[in-house]
Amino acid sequence: MTTKYDEMWEKLNLDLKAHEGLLEVLGKFYGDIYLSQEGRLKGMGYLNFVLSEVHGLRIQELQEAKARGRKVVGTFCIFVPEEIVLAADAVCVGLCAGAEIGREAAEKFLPRNTCALIKSFVGFKMARLCPFMESCDLVVGETTCDGKKKAYEIFADYAPIYVMEIPQMKNVCDRDLWKVEVERFRQKIEEVTGKTITAAKLKEAIRLVNDRRRVLQRLNQLRAAVPTPISGRDVLLVNQISFYDDPARFTTKISELCDELERRVEKGEGIVPQNTLRLMLSGCPMAVPNWKLPYLIESSGAVVVGEESCIGTRNIRDLVDESGETLEEMLDALVDRYMRIDCACFTPNRERLENVVNMARNLEVDGVIHYSLNFCQPYAIEAFKVGKTLEEAGIPMLSIETDYSMEDVEQLKTRVEAFVEMLR
Ligand code: BJ8
Predict the structure, then answer these.
(1) 298-330 burial string, b = 16+ CB within 10 Å, else e?
(2) Fewest CB atoms within 10 A around its CB: which of 8, 291, 376, 407?
(3) In this predicted model, what pLDDT tens digit does every residue of 358-396 receive, in sequence order?
(4) Ligand 1 atom closest to residue 115's alpha carbon, by position in its atom list
(5) Residue minimizing CA distance to atom 13 of ligand 1
């Protein structure tokens, strides 16, 4: 099937046939998992539109920005300070890594027992499937987990990659290291874009990204109501799209969605009955189109009311202090804010344990489902401590390890249903 975007995709050197297959799968998944829901907010129409145009109109916007001299920077991790990218007038995009389709291509380069997220981004590159990746003037990696670190070495032969060193502990010397890294990143971005980052530009960028975090915080507060006014799937989608969309437009649209949600909450309307079991997800990020587990949970008589994950609260919980006036003060504020991220790559990682329990209590959940991707050691191992801490707080947890394939759907469904039944 030909589309109006074929020429653009061809210029980006995509494998058109394989890409068509990806869009078909994405469309089918979206129809089954999202469009089949009843009682969705009208504002979700914007998200439907963005998703339907994720490889079309949004990519066209990126090409137009490039034609005007702006650079496109792709990232894989919420540690990369987007504010610095935006302050250099570049576009920042999260690089999709939630699909299985490039797995075979990835396994030519990576061991089979590599986490699905890593295989997905390597596969997308090797199979020429992702127009975001192919639009990038710079791809930014980070030394979070060993799998990513080593995969970037292979990736470097195929894409312009730059790797940030992320500390693994939170001592004073680790903050010093991170400050040097943020400064090094600023210089790299200035070199790639040919622009100087001024205090005024950085201030503007900090406010822009904070505004997006603030609107997502508002969404999370509203969805916590009883009865639950929006499905967990829909909130996950909003979070996923926040990594691709233009930040100012996204904030405006999600603000409108929140207004609608607020009216629904005031009327006491829910997307599910008042007594529906409330569950929270915790663990690895779920990138587009990884909707498997939330869908299974929400088809098993429960509703997801929170995501303790990078495509969720870990990315929006903390704002950057906006009081800085000089470049130095603002860079320090960025360093401090990003050091608060509680990724399982840190040791020890007590903050995450506290954050998981606080979040579960505030949301008044009946239980937590901990989700790790197969072969993700940081999250799979940390699941033990998360479970123990939740148990001490009297909150039941189910630990699940899975990947992007559909092979374990029945088995997962049985486990989720049994957990829901037990909570009842
Ligand atoms: S800040 S969670 S986005 S690193 S799932 S690739 S850890 S083996 S994704 Fe992450 Fe940044 Fe941390 Fe967030 Fe490795 Fe685990 Fe795979 Fe992972």
Answers:
(1) bebbbbbbbbbbbbbbbbbbbbbeeebeebeeb
(2) 407
(3) 999 999 999 999 999 999 999 999 999 999 999 999 999
(4) 16
(5) 310
